[in-house]
Each structure stands twice: as C-alpha cells, then as structure tokens.
Design brief:
The chain has about 350 residues and is of the alpha+beta class. The protein has 4 domains: about 140 residues, Nucleotidyltransferase, domain 5 (2-Layer Sandwich), CATH 3.30.420.40; about 40 residues, no CATH class; about 90 residues, ATPase, nucleotide binding domain (Nucleotidyltransferase, domain 5); about 70 residues, ATPase, substrate binding domain, subdomain 4 (Actin, Chain A, domain 4, Alpha-Beta Complex), CATH 3.90.640.10. Helices cover about 35% and strands about 25% of the residues. It starts with 5 loop residues before the first helix and ends in a 5-residue tail after the last strand.
C-alpha cells in the first residue's frame, strides 16, 4: 500500500487543504495541527521570503501585513481561484507548513495528500505536485476538494446513494454529487468568498466614495453579511479613505445593502448548484429529496445561505459542523482509512 516502510515510521503522513485564503494541515492520527492564512510576505525585486524576528513571514504573520507594508515589502497570496499563481512562493508556503508539522526538521520527507479543486487542469495538477515535492514531500497524492469535504462532514460517499456537497471556499466553489466513492456530477466555479469581498469593496466605492481594503471587506461580510433577509437587520460603521478628498472617513452601512451588493456572486453560486442538479441522473436526484445539500467551507458561515439555497432549490440544506475544516478533516479520514479509501486519490506519478 502507499503508506508503509521505514520512512513512514519516522515522518507524519500529512493531508493539506491548500486553499486560496487559508491552508490547513492534518496529520495522520492527530487531526488538524496547522491552520493559517495562505499568505507569504516577500522582499520586492528579489522575491525572497521576508524574515521577521528570526522566523519566515508566512501565514498569520504575513496576513497581518496585508495593506500595511512599505514599498519594499509585499504580502502575497500565491494561490488564485484555488490554483497556483506563483510557483516559487507556493513552494515556500508549503515548505514552511511541512517543516512546521515536523518540528522544523529539514530531514523528514513526508507522504502528502493535497486537496485540489475538481476543475483544475492536468498542468495545474502537475504544478501542485511539483511544488509539494520541491517543498520536501516524497510521495504526493491528490484528492478532489468536494470528495475531501464530503468525507470530512461524514457523508456516506461509499454507498449507492446520492450525496450532495457544496464547498464554498475563498477562491472556488465546489459542487458535487457523489455515489459509490466517486463524483458523478460536479461543477468547479471560480467564484467564492473572494468575489463576495470584491463585491463589497466595489459597493463601498460606488455608493460612498470610500476605498477599503480586503481585510475590511472580509470583516464586513463576517459581521453583517447575509444571503437571506434577517429577522433583525444589522448596522456597522466602516472606516476607509475618501476617494475624492483622500482623507480618512467613517460611514454607517446596513446589512440589507451588503446583501444586495453580494447578489451577483451569490447568484452565480446558485446557478452552479442548479446546473449540477440538472445534470444529475434521476435516481440520484431522487435521493437528494431525503439527503439534501450539505454546505461547507467558509461560505457556509454566511448568514442565511442555507435558507436561500433551500428556498431556491426546494431541497433540505444543512450547514456542516465546523465547515472551515471540512476539507482538511476529509484528508485525515483518507489517511486513517487508506486501505478502504485509496481509490479516491490520484497518483501524482501518473499525472503527465
């Protein structure tokens, strides 16, 4: 089997949810051991990872720098829409997390499962594998994110029964119908949490002439964002820069306007779900009347998104417990049950 041998006794087998917004690392038999933002701070021109207080500026440290660096430093998110946009920085990101999982040892080369969007190309898969190998992994396997999410939330994916998972991450929304340990129908949409943030930034600029950054738009989404009318609508003050005067300014916004601002990306997600349902074989579609839709990922935390999807699809919808960790927990399930679940993996050596 894949995970045996002497080196397997010396290293931790790792499952990695390499997300656009956050990276989570799961160790076999231990669960999730790392959860940090997918951000790297680099020195401009040289593209070398910044060292801050003796540590590489990766993850939490780098995220705190977004929007607050001077001209010689740049905080980079090396993944865009769930795939690698900057190979060198992604390698640095993976190296940091792999070493951190092994107590910063450079001599342990673990076997790794990496979760990837279901719609990525062969070239993009090879890029993930090459980056992981250069970062220190000696055996890399891939698992599609919706399958990992389904396993992580406990759906009966091995049964002859239709299960539907919607994983709304930072860069992609993964929609899949799963039966008998395989994906029957799926849609990988490059529209998710980041698009919601950008919609809020656009609204603040157009409605108030106020420029805000992505960290502020993310906080607005979390604090007052919703996909469905609230019993009691919310109000929040927002600080930003006046686009006309160039001076700091504060405005007051309401949850209704933020919901309207996010309408288009939410509608795109809804269309992806409906499109996947339309292509689903009738017997599996009938199962969904009972099993419904399970939503995971950071997008599942948006207020009222379950009610909106239930209203628009007519199916029961439930939010996964701890939706942010669903994909990472799914890689852990595979690591712990590799003899039964090895068929859900793709062998990196076979991807040309």
């Amino acid at each position: 089997m894949i995970f045996d041998g002497l080196l397997g006794m010396l290293s931790k087998d790792l499952g990695i949810d390499l997300g656009t917004a956050n990276t989570l690392v799961c160790a076999r038999g231990e669960g999730i051991i790392i959860s940090e933002p997918s951000v790297v701070a680099v020195v401009k021109d040289t593209n070398k990872v910044l060292v801050c207080n003796g540590e590489f500026a990766v993850g939490d440290c780098a995220k705190r720098m977004i929007g607050k660096t001077h001209s010689k430093i740049q905080a980079i998110r090396p993944l865009k829409n769930g795939v690698i946009a900057d190979f060198e920085i992604t390698e640095a990101l993976l190296s940091y997390f792999i070493r951190k999982a092994h107590g910063r040892s450079r001599f342990i080369h673990p076997r790794v499962i990496v979760a990837v969007p279901s719609g990525i190309t062969t070239v993009e898969k090879r890029a993930v594998i090459n980056s992981a190998e250069r970062a220190g992994a000696r055996d890399v396997r891939l698992i599609k994110e919706p399958m990992a999410a389904a396993l992580g939330v406990g759906l009966p994916v091995t049964e002859a029964k239709g299960s539907m998972i919607v994983d709304i991450g930072g860069g992609t929304t993964e929609v899949a119908i799963i039966s008998l340990s395989d994906i029957v129908q799926s849609t990988s949409l490059r529209c998710a949490g980041d698009e919601l943030n950008m919609a809020i930034i656009k609204h603040m600029k157009e409605a108030y002439n106020l420029q805000i950054g992505e960290p502020t738009s993310e906080r607005i989404k979390i604090e007052i964002g919703s996909a469905y009318p609230l019993d009691e609508e919310l109000v929040r003050e927002v600080k930003g820069q006046d686009t006309l005067a160039g001076l700091p300014r504060v405005v007051t916004i309401r949850s209704e306007e933020i919901r309207e601002a996010m309408h288009d990306p939410l509608d795109n997600i809804l269309k992806a779900i409906k499109g996947t349902l339309e292509r689903t074989p009738p017997e599996l579609a009938a199962d969904l009347l009972d099993t419904g839709i399970t939503i995971a990922g950071g997008g599942a935390l948006l207020r009222g998104i379950d009610k909106m999807l239930a209203r628009e699809t007519g199916l029961p919808v439930r939010k996964a417990d701890d939706p942010l960790t669903a994909v990472a927990r799914g890689t852990g399930v595979v690591l712990d049950q590799i003899d039964q679940l090895w068929t859900v993996l793709e062998d990196g050596r076979e991807i040309a």
